[in-house]
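Quick one: structure tokens for this chain, please?
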Amino acid sequence: MSPKSNNGPLRSARSAGERKKKSTRWVRGRKVSPHDEGHLSPHERLRPVAVQRFLQRRVEDHLRGDAEAKGISASLHYSGVPARLPIPVRIWIEDEADSETVQEAVRELLEESGFAVSRAYPPQVGSWRRSFVYRLRRVGTSKELRRRLDKVERGIELQLLIKNQAEVDQAQGDAVAKLLASLQNTPTALIQIGSILLVKVDGVPHVRNLTQDEIALLDSNPSLLDNPEVALSALNDAVGPLRGPNRVLAAEVDSEESSAAD
């Protein structure tokens, strides 16, 4: 039996480089990146399965830290044939103790919102982190994808504002409540669902559907999403304070206290 080679990481890096080199195409004399939609042939662009594989590769590369993959915007800006569009999902919590509960709550919310898990990466311990690729259960357009994400964000906002839940589907409302309850014991957390960012810092939750500028910032700097405080600080520095329903709720409480004082 031949001895084992000790250059595993080097071989892996070389293999990754070779895969990237092999996947690069020349179209009309121009080198096309595997992250460019021009990488797909006209025939492939009409095949939902080929589109799904192409977009999922971009999301996976983004989750591995590739700043060129633009994995957050990949499906949001896709304008071709309807497909089971993928999105990146990240979970970061301070303590591993609640990891199973949080994972299950995220899975339930996404399933109620029309998504299914496509790939789950192994968790990283210390502060507990895990990444996933989810995609639409049925083929759909980027417009349908954005509509579903908007609905998820709205459900979280309503729960944080403690408003009447009539505006939210009962099943989704329950799933959102379960997710927020799963984060009660951790003062610091980050959950990314496509373009939705739920960040909890010092026990205070912030949620928003990211703007184009914010998506561009995080697409170009995927490592910012490895830590809630870093992500929140970077967004505040780049595009102003991260707004969230907690800010609105705080303003309402201040107003009520002022009225009571009067």
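Residues 1-22, 244-262 have pLDDT under 50 and may be disordered.
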